[in-house]
């Protein structure tokens, strides 16, 4: 596709003379010694800078907004999981759910581990297949049973079929299982990024656990839980944080009660937090201006384009299509990559021009069969339209290149 040329930023954002962003506070240590940062597993021996970087590149704040931290005691790992061997669903259902558990175990580097049992009375988490999905409802639902801040039970229920009575295809079920299992291991909030497993709406064909998913999980397990299955010892707590301590690394006092007319961002993190809060309050143009500042602080075009992509999605969710197109044009002109070239079909999808979107996505996949973003969106459209034959054909054709299940 030919790259679009952007004549001005005035349409969506206005002009910003952004020259610099204040640097973060001087690095401090939480513990007595400083150790090298590792990919996962955070604790108080790590530097404030390491924890802050993890929080920024995660959706830990969204988890905390949901209320108390609820997770399993790591001393209880591996968690015992029972998956119903139901005769009322296809044989692959059970295997797909099992594979989703194993994907979390592998990706988390053992932060969460599982053991499958055949006796439900021995299980920490039980998975069942019941009922039929209703339109726009979740395929999988998780629920903790809690008494006196102790997890007494954990149950996941998957629907046997969709609202038309059709069996779920394996990728559909796998995507739902990843997200529902995520809830069951402590990711009780939702990601604002459309490509994370824990994104609640939109493209529901996410079959890859992302770095943001994993960093969020690691931070949850670095936090002293408010609710768990086995209370932590004082020794276990000594190496962990409270949620307030982790959030304090950001030094961004922006929440639902903040008077945004009085608050002024001072660094990248505060501008991003302000943008998210303005977005939540449906002040989209003001949010876009804050996102613009964040984008200009990035040192490479790929990162800038990702910020503009989020702005486009924000406007699409608000059904402000002209502004969405302007932001999409900026994202594409900033860096033409697999993500940004899917914006034109994404715009058409939101604007209910599915046939045009399908044509664009099929062309993108013919040109690059490894484009996972085009693949996921095309699968989503076919699933929305209940075009099972086209959906299955797309999975057979591009599943191994653009979306193969681990």
Q: What structural class do the secondary elements suggest?
A: alpha/beta
Please state the CA-atom Rg, rounded to the nearest Å: 22 Å
Strand content of the residues, in percent?
A: 5-15%
Sketch the topology as an H/E string, one letter per element.
HHEHEEEEHHHHHHHHHHHH
Structure described in brief:
The protein is an alpha/beta fold and 406 residues long. The protein has helices at 48-56, 60-65, 92-107, 170-184, 211-220, 234-238, 243-248, 268-280, 284-297, 301-317, 321-334, 343-350, 354-367, 372-384, 388-402; strands at residues 79-83, 114-117, 125-132, 140-147, 150-161.
Task: Please write out the topology.
Blueprint: H1 48-56, H2 60-65, E1 79-83, H3 92-107, E2 114-117, E3 125-132, E4 140-147, E5 150-161, H4 170-184, H5 211-220, H6 234-238, H7 243-248, H8 268-280, H9 284-297, H10 301-317, H11 321-334, H12 343-350, H13 354-367, H14 372-384, H15 388-402
Parallel strand pairs: 1-2, 1-3, 3-5
Antiparallel strand pairs: 4-5
Helix pairs in contact: 3-4, 8-9, 9-10, 10-11, 12-13, 13-14, 14-15
Written description of the protein model:
This protein is an alpha/beta fold. 43% of the residues lie in helices and 9% in strands. It has 15 helices and five strands. The protein has a five-stranded mixed sheet, covered by helices on one side. Strand 4 and strand 5 (150-161) form a beta hairpin. Helix 9 (284-297) runs antiparallel to helix 10 (301-317), helix 12 packs antiparallel against helix 13 (354-367) and helix 14 packs antiparallel against helix 15 (388-402). The longest helix is centred in the C-terminal third of the chain and has 17 residues, at 301-317. It is globular. Mean pLDDT is 82; it is low at 1-38.
């Amino acid at each position: 596709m030919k790259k679009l040329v952007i004549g001005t930023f005035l349409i969506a954002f206005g002009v910003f003379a952004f020259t610099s962003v204040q640097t973060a506070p001087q690095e401090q240590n939480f513990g007595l010694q400083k150790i090298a940062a590792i990919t996962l597993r955070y604790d108080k021996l790590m530097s404030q800078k390491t924890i802050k970087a993890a929080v920024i590149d995660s959706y830990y704040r969204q988890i905390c907004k949901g209320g108390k931290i609820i997770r399993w005691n790591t001393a209880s790992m591996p968690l015992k999981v029972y998956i119903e061997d139901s005769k009322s669903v296809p044989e692959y259902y059970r295997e797909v759910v099992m594979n989703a558990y194993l994907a979390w175990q592998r990706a988390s580097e053992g932060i969460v581990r599982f053991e499958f049992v055949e006796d439900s009375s021995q299980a920490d988490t039980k998975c069942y297949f019941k009922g039929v999905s209703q339109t726009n409802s979740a395929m999988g639902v998780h629920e903790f049973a809690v008494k006196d801040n102790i997890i007494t039970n954990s149950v996941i229920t998957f629907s046997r079929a969709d609202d038309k009575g059709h069996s779920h295809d394996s990728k559909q079920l796998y995507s739902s299982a990843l997200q529902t299992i995520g809830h069951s291991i402590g990711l009780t909030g939702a990601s604002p990024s459309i490509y994370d497993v824990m994104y609640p709406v939109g493209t529901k064909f996410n079959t890859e656990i992302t770095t943001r998913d994993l960093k969020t999980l690691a931070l949850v397990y670095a936090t002293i839980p408010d609710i768990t299955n086995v209370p932590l010892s004082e020794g276990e707590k000594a190496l962990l944080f409270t949620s307030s301590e982790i959030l304090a690394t950001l030094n961004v006092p922006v929440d639902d009660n903040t008077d945004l007319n009085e608050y002024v961002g001072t660094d990248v993190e505060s501008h991003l937090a302000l943008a998210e809060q303005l977005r939540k309050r449906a002040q989209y143009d003001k949010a876009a201006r804050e996102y613009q500042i964040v984008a200009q602080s990035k040192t490479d075009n790929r990162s800038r384009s990702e910020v503009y992509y989020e702005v486009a999605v924000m406007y699409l969710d608000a059904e402000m299509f002209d502004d969405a197109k302007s932001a999409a044009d900026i994202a594409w002109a900033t860096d033409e990559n697999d993500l940004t070239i899917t914006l034109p079909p994404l715009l058409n999808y939101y604007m209910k021009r599915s046939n045009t979107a399908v044509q664009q996505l099929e062309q993108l996949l013919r040109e690059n069969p490894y484009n996972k973003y085009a693949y996921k969106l095309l699968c989503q459209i076919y699933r929305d339209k209940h075009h099972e034959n086209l959906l299955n054909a797309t999975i057979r054709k591009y599943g191994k290149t653009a979306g193969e299940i681990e």
